[in-house]
Amino acid sequence: MIVEILQPDAVNKAFQKKISELYKQLNANIQQLPIKNILQDNENLIFAICQEDDKLVGMAMMATYQVISGYKGIIEDVVVDENYRRKGIGRKLMERLLSEGKKGQLTEILLFSGHHRLPAINLYKSLGFVLKDSGLYTLKLA
Amino acid sequence: MIVEILQPDAVNKAFQKKISELYKQLNANIQQLPIKNILQDNENLIFAICQEDDKLVGMAMMATYQVISGYKGIIEDVVVDENYRRKGIGRKLMERLLSEGKKGQLTEILLFSGHHRLPAINLYKSLGFVLKDSGLYTLKLA
């Protein structure tokens, strides 16, 4: 099992398809942005993947941004193939993102998770994340 | 009262000081990143300010990022001078950010707010934001 950072030139059509299929396990209804587009000329996205043999079994990504209150990362779109869960893949992906965040001198990493996703929440807590006393609000534009 | 988008070359030492002072009303303990640094060569930050005569009375900023699930904006560091509240300045700043977000074809805008900040939350709700059924988790690195 190999965890690595996805490079834009590694994304061919077949790989895009693998990512797209895996992502559907997280959310089958969402309009996905194509990986090539979001990685191209984008130094603000760290895209971690996990492969076993030739199969994509997990991914997680962190977008970085700067505001007055800090240089932050927000982790989104964390998904592990349902046939490969409970093997520590999510943890390995998260650890890789955290290590990239430390290397990049982020001051804070944020993420949000549905209250019902207990295994994910336990993983995040075990990595040092704490629940903020804040509500998360969203406005959909598309 | 004028709401506008702050341009990097408008940030001189005096203006940096104004921003820094105003920001302290939101959080006096946080290590602030200098505006010049976060705006420079950064197409992913939209920094709205409100001035009355020569006084900076409010600001709000939105960082944009792309992940598989969308092209998103996250609004942070919204603050209105305590002597200028209840005048609609927060709303004007937010409306400007939302309008920039629509122009930039964001698919979603996120923000978080302490559960106790009722006037802010009411403002966000009145602009169409809805509370997500998710917890927000944070890991401080510095």
Q: State the helicity of chain A in percent bands.
A: 25-40%
Strand order of the largest sheet of chain A: 1-2-3-4-5
The chain pair with the largest interface is: A-B, 59 and 59 residues
CATH architecture of chain A: 3-Layer(aba) Sandwich
CATH class of chain A: Alpha Beta
Taking all residues together, what is the mean pLDDT of chain A?
A: 96
Q: Would you tell me which CATH topology of chain A applies?
A: Aminopeptidase
What is the count of helical runs of chain A? 4
Report the span from N to C terminus of chain A: 37 Å
- Residue fraction in strands of chain A: 35-45%
Number-wise, the strands of chain A total 7
Structural class of chain A: alpha+beta
Task: Give the overall shape of chain A, derived from the CA principal axes.
Answer: globular
Low-confidence stretches of chain A: none
Taken in chain order, the helices and strands of chain A follow as EHHEEEHEHEE
Q: By CATH's scheme, which homologous superfamily of chain A applies?
A: Gcn5-related N-acetyltransferase (GNAT)
Sheet of most strands of chain A? 5 strands, mixed
- Using the CA coordinates, give the radius of gyration of chain A: 15 Å
Can you tell me the number of structural domains of chain A?
1
Oligomer: homodimer
